[in-house]
Write a structure and sequence with these properties.
Largest sheet: none
Distance between the termini: 27 Å
Structural class: mainly alpha
Number of strands: 0
Number of helices: 3
Amino acid sequence: MPQPVSAQIEEGVIDVLKNVSRRPIEPTLRSDLVADLGFDSLQVLEVIAELEDRFDISIPLNDVPATRTVAQVVAQVSGLVGARAAS
């Protein structure tokens, strides 16, 4: 049975976070990118670039400072994927 789109996006975001991290991490939806996962600003930009490639979206850099947790990243990517599908 195919997974719902939101579950696929959540898995994809967590996979990207694990790939970009320089150490083993187990991100959860509550994880803060900086405080919990130890990402620096360059890694956050790497995550954005990988997410844009993986999901064929464009993430506005103005939204990045307000996006702190994995759940917020998943919500943002879901919204952009949904907007792309609707257009």
